[in-house]
Design brief:
Length: about 140
């Protein structure tokens, strides 16, 4: 009657919890930044500032109904440059529409990165299983 047996569902659930546990263990600092906003107390340097600036600019442009790929003439005078094609993938701006009302820009970026890593692990497992790699090796 059902395409999957109870044993297969149990195994899939155990594997999912295994991947979530591994992700929480190895990416604990990243998950910690999601739940504890320390963006005002720790110092940032390098591309983290660009990531926050570009993410916030893309988010604000989407909210205003402006093209997120619009160039800002103040960025590289006199030609201008777009924030959307820099360090942050432009598709993350759409995720910010869901996350930004609840989280800060730093927490939103951290959550998107943590979920992306978790989904990459899960889909790599499914891909390896599709290639008929054994469950233990996948």
């Amino acid at each position: 009657m059902y395409p999957y047996s109870y044993a297969k569902i149990k195994i899939a659930t155990a594997i999912l919890f295994f991947f979530v546990g591994i992700n929480l263990y190895f990416d604990f600092p990243l998950w910690n930044q999601v739940f504890r906003d320390d963006s005002r107390t720790i110092s940032y340097h390098g591309e983290i500032l660009l990531l926050h600036l570009s993410g916030e600019t893309i988010y604000q442009n989407i909210l205003k109904g402006v093209n997120p790929f619009t160039t800002d003439p103040g960025l590289m005078y006199p030609f201008g440059a777009s924030y959307a094609v820099n360090d942050l993938a432009p598709i993350n701006g759409y995720y910010f529409l869901l996350l930004r009302p609840f989280f800060s820009i730093h927490q939103s970026v951290s959550l998107i990165a943590a979920i992306s890593i978790l989904l990459a692990h899960i889909f790599m497992y499914l891909f390896l299983r599709r290639l008929d790699i054994s469950r233990s090796a996948a």
